[in-house]
Amino acid sequence: MRDVAIIGAGMIPFGRRDEDSLMDMLAYASLKALDDAGLGDKSVDAVYVGNMGGGIIQHQTAIASSLVDRLSLLPAAAETIENGPASGGSAVKNGLLAVASGYYDYVLVVGGEKMREVTGWRATDFVATMTHPGAEYPYGITLPGMAGMFTRLYMEKYGVTREHLVTVTLKNQEMGALNPYAHVEMVLSREGIFDSPHSIVNNPPMADPLHLYDACPVSDGAAAIVLCPLDMLKAEKKSLDASKPLVVIAGFGQATDTQTLQEREDPTDLKAVTLAAQKAFEMAKLKPGDIHVAELHDAFTILEIAESEHVGFFKKGEGGKAAMAGKTRLGGQIPINVSGGLKARGHPVGATGVAQVVDIVFQLRHELPKTRQVKNAMNGLTVNFGGFGNNVLAFVLRRVQQ
Amino acid sequence: MRDVAIIGAGMIPFGRRDEDSLMDMLAYASLKALDDAGLGDKSVDAVYVGNMGGGIIQHQTAIASSLVDRLSLLPAAAETIENGPASGGSAVKNGLLAVASGYYDYVLVVGGEKMREVTGWRATDFVATMTHPGAEYPYGITLPGMAGMFTRLYMEKYGVTREHLVTVTLKNQEMGALNPYAHVEMVLSREGIFDSPHSIVNNPPMADPLHLYDACPVSDGAAAIVLCPLDMLKAEKKSLDASKPLVVIAGFGQATDTQTLQEREDPTDLKAVTLAAQKAFEMAKLKPGDIHVAELHDAFTILEIAESEHVGFFKKGEGGKAAMAGKTRLGGQIPINVSGGLKARGHPVGATGVAQVVDIVFQLRHELPKTRQVKNAMNGLTVNFGGFGNNVLAFVLRRVQQ
């Protein structure tokens, strides 16, 4: 396998983007990443688009082929990758392996989703397309419902409390408010959403024990990266932007689990998260303790806590306490979701896995404002969580000393 | 890049499969390919599913993750690839590059579609999701409509006649009737569909100058292959079925073109077909004349003729005459769509690109009955055509002397 560098990264502000079509957003994010890469006269060989809902929501298929035309990148190969909420991560993975194989040199990976076209029950229905069509959805199971039951089990087994969850909400909304790309700019108060008489009104129960602010919003957005072989980059340094610190994908792992939770021996055990992270660490020859910044898939607050344990940052049952103790804040032991995470940056599903990588690239290049920059970050981790943990991708990114 | 072998191939009969869900069909085809591969205790590292309509027709997403669970292949990585009618070819491509990269050893590629759930205008509407949402579909353009206009131009520029098209229909239906996996088993007569007074009733105009029997049917179906590195196969020969002739993917090419036909300088010029085939031949170090059998994407009869010219089997304007002269029949200069092609085998869109590869594997292994076997076939070509030629994939398969 050839080593693969990320030479361009960009995203557009997530949120409500009523004026933009899905194709507009994919194009805008692509142009930002291409501009950042400074390819000059190099042409893009292939474009990988991560997207979940183009067919269902926009009634459009083969959107990658359309994007290549829109970007005037013809005759570059085009692929649309769909893997539920892990569509973005899967697009990164397929782009990575395509470059690693030696078949392509310059690959653009874009993730995007225009989800605000479906809100309320229609958003829940769209997301539920990833549940089991025979054993789950017909019986009323939705993703928030699954997350609620998972949270209850996790609380009972590991002593996670509502206070732990609220801590994650507050941290991620606080950080999101500092991120110009984040959907949710509102800083919440502990009193407002948790321990005042009004908190039940401000933050009503959604799927007990989860409340409204335990869930990510429904967002529009897109993010993109440009990949190329590390060797080629070294050889052609003069023609690319050599002033930017270099970031490589040092490790990648992916694993699947049963589609339904009830088939798992221990439904609190997110085996696919553990396995995906282990594989990524193994390939990167790093350990969880070597990671300086992480973007975890906090579609629900419980998932940030559970994933922080499953990837090995904390022992089982310690994640909630660690969050309470500030260990996952900027300046803490392992800053998690400094971007605001899915909780505050937003979760346009196909965009998320790519946006996580973009955020880590920004961190490893040390180009963020002080309020958000993890000092001297050299290694970063992303976890993109599909279904309810039935398809998980993890990437380890590394800043290369030049 | 590592050389990649196809060690297993299988498909299920295409047609109306009302009793089977999409997941059933994907699983049945997978099991046939896995059984054919005889993996023994080797485990599958990843599963790539080519599918276009799971979200729109079945309201299901992330179907590859679900399939991995259904097949008890956990924790194998799973990806769903969507590229319109080229979804199957794109799944093969991504599986190919993943194995070529060295990251995975054993990869299952499955293509499938359950299209009979949408017939009539709903089928046309589903297929039209690949047209341009601003410039084509709102103005009434559908895929058959586009094919009709393309045919008219091709007739005017190159002298293709209705008789040429009917020849393709008759050849492919005749061959399909011999293929136990084909959807359409009906042998048509020239008189019945072309030159009798009743032919206008039997074979009514659909999108002038195309008639009903110029188009492929709407089919359910699935097909699958198993890939592994050639070197590993040689090393582990004893543990796999060494009695089967070995087939490798010797070449692969892909190219995109403008999404709308009116933006092409010459709308009769299928540039992406030419480019994809050229790249595949270049990688395989072969020429069109070295190919002994081909599966071309005859969603409409005109496409078989046009593609036979664009890939280099015949000069422009000679494809129709060559078909009339029997050059593309079994025993002719270059047998095309001996399987019956999309025209008669059927075109469950996500399945097609994989089924084409499966059919060529059967040919190169020389395991078909005499009535369908191309004698001593050593090299085969497939062309999978997405959109109206805006994303095309070509594969050159080669039988390896052992």
Which CATH class of the domain at 4-119 and 218-239 in chain A?
Alpha Beta
Distance between the termini of chain A: 21 Å
Number of helices of chain A: 14
Low-confidence runs of at least 5 consecutive residues of chain A: none
Which sheet architecture does the biggest sheet of chain A show?
9 strands, mixed
| CATH fold-level topology of the domain at 4-119 and 218-239 in chain A | Peroxisomal Thiolase, Chain A, domain 1
Q: Largest chain-chain contact?
A: A-B, 57 and 57 residues
Give the mean pLDDT of chain A. 96
Any idea what the radius of gyration of chain A is?
A: 20 Å
Q: Which structural class best describes the helix and strand composition of chain A?
A: alpha/beta
Shape descriptor of chain A = globular
SSE series of chain A: EHEHEHEHHHHHEEEHEHEHHHHEE
CATH superfamily of the domain at 4-119 and 218-239 in chain A: Thiolase/Chalcone synthase
List the SSEs and their pairings.
The structure is a homodimer of 402-residue chains.
Chain A: E1 4-11, H1 22-37, E2 46-50, H2 63-70, E3 77-82, H3 87-101, E4 107-114, H4 121-127, H5 143-158, H6 162-176, H7 190-195, H8 199-202, E5 205-207, E6 210-211, E7 220-229, H9 230-235, E8 246-256, H10 271-284, E9 293-295, H11 301-310, H12 319-324, H13 341-345, H14 349-364, E10 379-386, E11 391-400
Parallel strand pairs in A: 2-3, 2-4, 9-10
Antiparallel strand pairs in A: 1-7, 1-8, 4-7, 5-6, 8-11, 10-11
Helix pairs in contact in A: 3-14, 6-11
Structure notes:
2 copies of one chain form a homodimer. With 402 residues, chain A is an alpha/beta fold. Chain A has a domain at 4-119 and 218-239: Thiolase/Chalcone synthase (Peroxisomal Thiolase, Chain A, domain 1), CATH 3.40.47.10. Helix content of chain A is 36%, strand content 18%. Chain A has 14 helices and 11 strands. The first copy, chain A, has helices at residues 22-37, 63-70, 87-101, 121-127, 143-158, 162-176, 190-195, 199-202, 230-235, 271-284, 301-310, 319-324, 341-345, 349-364, and strands at residues 4-11, 46-50, 77-82, 107-114, 205-207, 210-211, 220-229, 246-256, 293-295, 379-386, 391-400. Chain A has a 9-stranded mixed β-sheet with strand order 3-2-4-7-1-8-11-10-9, sandwiched between helices. Chain A has a two-stranded antiparallel sheet with strand order 5-6. In chain A, a hairpin with a 2-residue loop joins β5 and β6. In chain A, α6 (162-176) packs across α11. Chain A starts with a strand and ends with a strand. The model of chain A has no long low-confidence stretch (mean pLDDT 96). At the A-B interface, α2, β3, α3, β8 and α10 of A face α3, β3, α4, β8 and α11 of B. β3 of chain A pairs antiparallel with β3 (77-82) of chain B.
